[in-house]
Each structure stands twice: as C-alpha cells, then as structure tokens.
Design goal:
mainly alpha, MetI-like fold, 2 domains, 15 helices, 79% helix, ABC transporter permease
Length: 315
C-alpha cells in the first residue's frame, strides 16, 4: 500500500509540473502583456520597453518560467503587478472565503442528496422515487447564478432576513461570516444536489440487486434495512468520485455566484487578474486550482482503499 501511495504522489507531482508548463505556455502565446495592459494603447515604445524591463518581461521565457516555479516551490508566489502586494497574501485572503463556501455548499448537497437518493432507491418506481427525480431535474435545470438572484430577491430584498451580498470578514465573527455565505452556498448546492441525488439512487439501486443484499433479505431484513446496512456502504465509491469532482467544481467554478453576491473569493480574483493581464496572479491561481483538484482526487483514491478491502488485497 505504501508503494501505491508513493506512486500516486509521484504522479501528482508530475501532473502539477505539466500543468505549470501548460499554464506558462498559454500565457506566453496570448496577445499583449501586462505592460501594454497597464499603460494602454497610447503608450510609447520606450515606455513599454522600460516597464517590461522593470517587470522582468524582457527576459527569455525559460528563465522567467524557472524563476516563477522556483518561487512557487519555496513558497514565494511573486508580487501582483496590479495590487502591488504578495500573491500569497491575496490567495490566502480569497481562499478564506472560497474554501468555506465550497465546503458549506458540498455539505448542504450531501445532506439533501444522500437521504433523498437512498430513499428513491428504496422506493423505486413509487412516489418518493418520482419526487426525487422531479427535484433532481428541477435543480439541474436552474442555473446557480439565477438561484442566487432569486434568493436575494426573496430573503434579502423582500423578507430582509439575510444580507444581499458582501463578506464582513471572519474577524467580524463566525456567525456573521456564515450568514454571508448561506445564500451563496445554497445557490451552489442545489444543482450539485440534483446530480448527487441521481448518482446516489443509481449506485444504491445497483447494489440493492446484488446477491449479498438478496441474502440479507432472505435472512429476514426488510428492504429498507438491507439497503441502509449493506447496499449504501458498498455504493459509496461512485458517490465519493462524484463528490470529488463536485468539490473541485465548487472551488473553481463559483465565480458567477461570487459575482452575484459580491464575495471576494478566488474565482473573482482570477477573473480580475485575467481582465487586467496580471500574469503572475493568473499563473498562481490556476496552479492552485490544479493542485486542489489533484489533491482531492488523490484523497478519493485513498478512500477507495479504506472502503474496499479487495483493492488493498490486490496491491
């Protein structure tokens, strides 16, 4: 098992290296650069050359890549051309919003989808199954940014129960921070709950037809208890796979919801950096997104080994 983990870690590092090369190369082939974006179209060639030299953009691409990736390996993510502060501080401040938002949204999706999908499998082709299918279809049909706008209209504008947007910072208290994240988390969670409900129903229903579940039924267990004790635990691997994809989507794909609720998250930072051609910030943020995705998938792979002894035996 130790050899398997070491091999996965080596693959993780290789993937991150390839992603860093791809990100750097993509920024190289895009038209324009940070200097031209900052000085505008009316800048003289002399001013552009001076700023490029100041920012180090006149150096060869391999040298700039090695300086960037070397800084990343030592914890130095560089300095933002736009904000004039270390990128590490920008990213840390934004992750303090994005990660709790993604975690809260994923928790809400699990709390809704896991019981609903299991109930739909236990009562297949009956009213609960039809209700779960209706919920899943409705949740998937509604864009999360539209759900966010609807939540603001009802709970912030009309009822005045929740703030319409913004983030007070965790220094204002955990309660105030969570209150600002509740509606964005619900907007993100509903479509993911629709996906997870379908996956849970399908996975549990497949396991409910296996021989070991039929044996449990033959020994006197009701269908509900046989599904809860035997089918659901064995259906967790495909569910965990979807959860891993959903978490990375919630971290990297929450930019629209962050804009709707005016949240200073990592997605909005990436959008601003792309508009302003802040190359250092873009490269670092994309690499962090990739690292989070790879780490989550690595954690999912390890969970397979813990949940299924047969996989450990094969190793």
């Amino acid at each position: 098992m130790a050899g398997l983990i070491a091999g996965r870690l080596a693959g993780l590092l290789l993937t991150l290296f390839l992603v860093s090369v791809a990100v750097f190369a993509a920024m190289e082939v895009l038209p324009g650069d940070t200097a031209s974006a900052r000085l505008g179209t009316q800048a003289t060639p002399e001013a552009l050359a001076s700023l490029r030299a100041e920012l180090g953009l006149d150096r060869p691409a391999p040298e700039r890549y090695l300086r960037w990736i070397g800084g990343v390996l030592t914890g130095d993510l560089g300095t933002s051309f736009t904000y004039g502060v270390p990128v590490a501080k920008l990213v840390a401040d934004r992750l303090a919003v994005t990660l709790p938002l993604a975690g809260l949204a994923l928790a809400l999706a699990i709390l809704v989808a896991l019981p609903l999908g299991t109930l739909a499998a236990a009562r297949a082709d009956r009213a609960p199954d039809a209700a779960a299918a209706l919920f899943a279809q409705g949740a998937l049909a509604l864009p999360n940014f539209w759900i966010g706008l609807l939540l603001i209209l009802v709970f912030a504008t009309t009822l005045r129960w929740m703030p319409s947007g913004g983030f007070p910072g965790w220094e204002a208290g955990i309660g105030a921070g969570l209150q600002a994240l509740v509606m964005p988390a619900v907007a993100l969670a509903l479509p993911q709950a629709g996906v997870l409900t379908r996956v849970t129903r399908s996975a549990v229903l497949d396991m409910a037809n296996e021989d070991f579940v039929r044996l449990a039924r033959a020994k006197g267990l009701s269908r509900r208890r046989a599904i809860l004790r035997h089918a659901l635990p064995n259906a967790l691997p495909p569910i965990l796979t979807v959860l891993g994809f959903q978490f990375t989507f919630l971290v990297a794909g929450a930019v629209l919801v962050e804009n709707v609720f005016n949240l200073p998250g990592l997605g909005s930072l990436a959008r601003q950096a792309l508009v302003q051609r802040d190359v250092v910030v873009i490269q670092d943020v994309v690499l962090i997104f990739a690292a989070l995705t790879i780490l989550v998938n690595f954690a999912v792979d390890l969970s397979y080994l813990l949940l299924d002894p047969r996989l450990r035996a094969r190793r």
